[in-house]
Automatic annotation (TrEMBL):
Organism per entry: Nadsonia fulvescens var. elongata DSM 6958
Active site: C92 (nucleophile), H210 (charge relay system), E212 (charge relay system)
EC number: 3.5.1.2
This protein's record includes keyword Transferase: yes
Catalytic reaction list: L-glutamine + H2O = L-glutamate + NH4(+)
GO cellular component, one term: glutaminase complex
Full protein name: glutaminase
């Protein structure tokens, strides 16, 4: 039997990248993936990025992530990774970096424009700066992620779903996967107060919170199965 190789990178310019790698490792150790060799790598260079079948952009500080990406010449390769329709998951600051528009951004703050969403930085204000709440994500996760200890830290929210432009152009450039190319933004989860904190657009996932800071790797397992492995099997 031929073995499949799957490499998932975590952008390691700033923020909680080590925790993401640990959760990915836990997620594959806790499940049977008999025919897949996984490699989880920290990504700081274009060469490292080019090895990845999927990428996680961690939480931290989105202005710093943008600035370091610019200074290390990684911004352009990251934009190409987005255009190539590779699976990407942005958590918190990573969600901001992955979006197309930001509210409360720093002047000139570079973003990847990978999801048709507007994101408001620091949307919970001072009172609710950081909080932890158990949420039930079993409505959209195939592995029934219920009672998930969700941590929000100076978190953004998805403040608007933007029109899905440039579709035809993208279809011509890359027609290998209709499912990915034709996808619109889906709202995956809203808090009780109506704020949107999880969205999906094809093989891109965005969450306002930090699943890598909970002692629970079910969200990471869902990303591996639903985003990275499914997209590898359709290439
Ligand atoms: N926990 C986080 O990632 C916080 C995000 C931070 N407020 C930013 O704008 O980048």
């Amino acid at each position: 039997m031929t073995r499949q190789e799957t490499t998932i990178g975590v952008l390691a310019l700033q923020g909680a990248f080590i925790e993401h790698i640990q959760h990915l490792e836990l997620a594959v150790n806790s499940s049977a993936y008999d025919s897949i060799d996984f490699d989880f790598i920290e990504v700081r260079t274009e060469t490292e990025l080019s090895r990845c079948d999927g990428l996680i952009i961690p939480g931290g500080e989105s202005t710093s992530i943008s600035l370091i990406a610019q200074r290390t010449n990684l911004l352009e390769p990251l934009m190409r990774f987005v255009k190539d329709e590779k699976p990407i998951w942005g958590t918190c600051a990573g969600l901001i970096f992955l979006s197309k528009q930001i509210i409360n951004g720093k002047p000139g703050q570079a973003i990847l424009g990978g999801m048709d969403i507007q994101v408001e930085r620091n949307a919970f204000g001072r009172q609710l700066d950081s909080f932890k709440v158990d949420l039930d994500f079993s409505g959209f996760t195939s592995n029934k992620v219920d009672a998930f200890p969700t941590i929000f830290i100076r978190a953004p929210v998805i403040s608007k779903i933007l029109a899905h432009k440039g579709q035809q152009e993208r279809d011509v450039i890359n027609s290998r996967n209709d499912y990915i190319n034709n996808s619109k933004v889906e709202v995956l989860y809203k808090l009780e107060n109506g704020l949107i904190v999880a969205v999906r657009q094809g093989n891109k996932l965005g969450t306002s919170f930090h699943p890598e800071l909970s002692h629970d790797c079910r969200f990471h397992k869902w990303f591996i199965d639903e985003f990275v492995l499914k997209s590898q099997s359709t290439v």
